[in-house]
Design brief:
The protein is an all-beta fold. It has strands spanning 7-11, 27-29, 32-34, 44-47, 54-63, 65-73, 82-89, 92-99, 105-109, 112-116, 128-135, 145-149, 152-156, 171-177, 187-195. Strands 1, 3, 4, 6, 11, 12, 13 and 15 form an eight-stranded antiparallel beta sheet that branches. A seven-stranded antiparallel beta sheet has the order 2-5-14-7-8-9-10, with no helix packed on it. The mean pLDDT is 92.
């Protein structure tokens, strides 16, 4: 089966320095560009992702379904659940992907956990490829919220689960990192992309 999707935004963090982050992103809190920390030796986003650092991108329109991918490196486990990716409706969280201190991943509707992976294959000290397909709805269809790590499905949220926190079934902002949870130190993000599910 061929999966069609339209690219909304991407960033390899290779072509600019910290001072230029907000020329591409909407806002930045405590993130920097590590010019040599990327997977292939190029640039990567650097910061205490999940604790005190986040990067916000406001999209040009609203979308109900997303396919998001990134390479993620953590030097160790988070002390508690740390936010990796947040999807927001005008500043209010709809759905959030967090990493836990045992390297499992949890999907939240705002602050309410709806499903946790039994295992992930995430390892500290090396890049892991995380992909997240998600639809914002008060009753999702089967296979509408799936998390993969290094190509392996680690979490498939059950059909009929509520993943809509606001009155709207869409989001227009994506946030990398967040201000809750405890990070294990300086994390790196590389090869980030976000798509919708249209052709």
């Amino acid at each position: 089966r061929i999966l069609y999707m339209a690219l909304l935004f991407m960033d390899g963090f290779d072509h600019y320095v910290t001072a230029d982050i907000t020329k591409k992103w909407s806002s930045n809190t405590n993130c920097t560009i590590n010019t040599t920390g990327g997977r292939g030796g190029g640039g990567a986003l650097s910061g205490s992702i999940g604790q005190t650092a986040d990067l916000v991108k406001t999209l040009e329109s609203t979308y109900s379904s997303f396919i998001i991918g990134m390479r993620f490196l953590t030097p160790g486990a988070f002390g508690s659940a740390g936010q990796l990716i947040q999807l927001r409706d005008a500043g209010s969280n709809q759905v959030v992907l967090r990493m836990n201190n045992d390297y499992t991943l949890t999907v939240y509707r705002n602050t309410t956990a709806v499903a946790t992976s039994s295992a992930t294959g995430i390892s500290s000290g090396s890049f892991n490829y995380i992909e997240w397909k998600v639809t914002i709805s008060d009753s999702i269809a089967a296979d509408s919220c799936i998390v993969r790590v290094n190509g392996v499905v680690v979490l498939n949220v059950a059909a009929t689960t509520d993943l809509k926190n606001t009155a709207n079934s869409f989001a227009n902002q994506i946030v990398l990192g967040g201000s809750s949870g405890n990070s294990a130190g300086t994390c790196l993000i590389d090869d980030f992309y976000i798509c919708d599910n249209s052709g």
